[in-house]
Amino acid sequence: MYNSVRTFSFLFGYLPMAAVNLKKFQAQKEILSKQEYDALIHTEPQKWAKGILKRTKSRIETSGLENLPDGPALLVANHEGNFDIPVLLSEIPKPFGFISKKEVKKFPVIPVYMEDMNCVFLDRTDRRSAYKSITDTAQKLKDGHSILIFPEGTRSKGEGISDFKTGFVRIAKDAGVPIVPIAIHGTSDIMEKNNNKIRPGHVTIRVLEPVLAETVEKTEAKQLIELVRKTVETEVQSMAQEKADLK
């Protein structure tokens, strides 16, 4: 319970400072390159995410950062828990936006940051919104920004990886960018497996070898979906076994 209070207090208590910093950042937007501004904006969410994770007292282990390519890329990860986004923001040095539920727009400050991070908002109840999110995400990538997507659509809560939906392949093919598979294990131990109470977890992240844009272009969609899903699933299973062996 104490960890939960500390974490949520920081989550919302940090917003006034974030709002002040956002105004400072936006004042520099016209004089910075697109890549420089993305990197600047990324510093605040990364600081926020690190602060949240520090208060959960979780241990994070990350490897494979050398597999992050230069230039825009579609980051594709399994979706285990609510802490996937904070963990990835805190550990991945490459600036990225992500697809988020439109309900987040009701929060103060956060959606403004997300827009500058090049996030895309999705209304899950509207098919036209789902289609638009695909085209909007592809355009963000074409404009030179990296995007993270969870193709399972919903959290697995640590109970295996579900089927990957086809949208991420359409996005990558349309944008002509590489796909970077990312395997996450352990985020559900922080919250979902504790009746939504926050507890310390041991999270491992592995950034895997990218599927080059040339391969994305020439590979059939079904094969590409299976390739990326199997790559992530195999690594998640390996991480789970490694942790089991340590117990």
TrEMBL record:
Residues 73-187 form the Phospholipid/glycerol acyltransferase domain. The HXXXXD motif is essential for acyltransferase activity and may constitute the binding site for the phosphate moiety of the glycerol-3-phosphate. The lineage of its organism: Bacteria, Bacillati, Bacillota, Bacilli, Bacillales. The keyword Membrane does not apply. GO terms for molecular function: acyltransferase activity. It catalyses: a 1-acyl-sn-glycero-3-phosphate + an acyl-CoA = a 1,2-diacyl-sn-glycero-3-phosphate + CoA. The keyword 4Fe-4S does not apply. PANTHER family: 1-ACYL-SN-GLYCEROL-3-PHOSPHATE ACYLTRANSFERASE, 1-ACYL-SN-GLYCEROL-3-PHOSPHATE ACYLTRANSFERASE-RELATED. CDD domains: LPLAT_AGPAT-like (cd07989). This is 1-acyl-sn-glycerol-3-phosphate acyltransferase. Its EC number is 2.3.1.51. Pathway: Lipid metabolism. Belongs to the 1-acyl-sn-glycerol-3-phosphate acyltransferase family. It holds the Pfam family Acyltransferase. Keywords: Acyltransferase, Lipid biosynthesis, Lipid metabolism, Phospholipid biosynthesis, Phospholipid metabolism, Transferase.
